[in-house]
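Posted in: Structural Biology > Protein-Ligand Complexes

Title: Requesting predicted complex, iron/sulfur cluster in pocket

I'd be grateful if someone could produce the 3D structure tokens for the following input. Sequence and ligand are given below.
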Amino acid sequence: MGLKENLIRRGYDFVEFDTKEDAASYLCNACAGKTVALGGSVTLSEMGLYEGLQKSSVCFWHWKNDSLADARTASVYVTSANALAETGEIVNIDGNGNRVSSSIFGHETVYFMVGENKITSDLPSAWDRARNIAAPKNAARLGKNTPCAADGVCHDCQSPQCICSVITVHRRKPSSCNAVVILVHESLGY
Ligand code: SF4
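-- Reply #1 --
Done. Output follows.
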């Protein structure tokens, strides 16, 4: 069973696009007239989603403005994933917790925007990718004083500036929201 089939049997809707431009166009059309909040994400930044969504939606993104409180009220939440297993599990790591909590509860629809570089073969390899590739790169990007920012490998640290407070595994779609996985056949984010 492939990724698409595994996500569908776990309760997700699934769409895929060859380019980030086509994926962005799909999402902007789907969100027209709605309130939308974005999670912190290099993927979403590389896609220019905030700028695109502002044309036809009310969009909140704390990377652009002080809108974390407003984001909680949005009907739609958009995030990426730190890893997506071919078996259908989605792994995310969060320091603050706003991103992972919003991916679970509180919004009518959650979109996971995922570049194909995030795909791994199974849950253990997805967990490993999130911890040893995505998190160290994000710690370095943010200039954190953590051991992984220096050598690119997770040391399971308890540093004051650790960005790995919460690690989530979406085993299946949470029951109170709609959830859509958008796969982009490009490399996006970490
Ligand atoms: S737990 Fe610490 S060392 Fe490991 S990735 Fe997170 S911040 Fe880096």
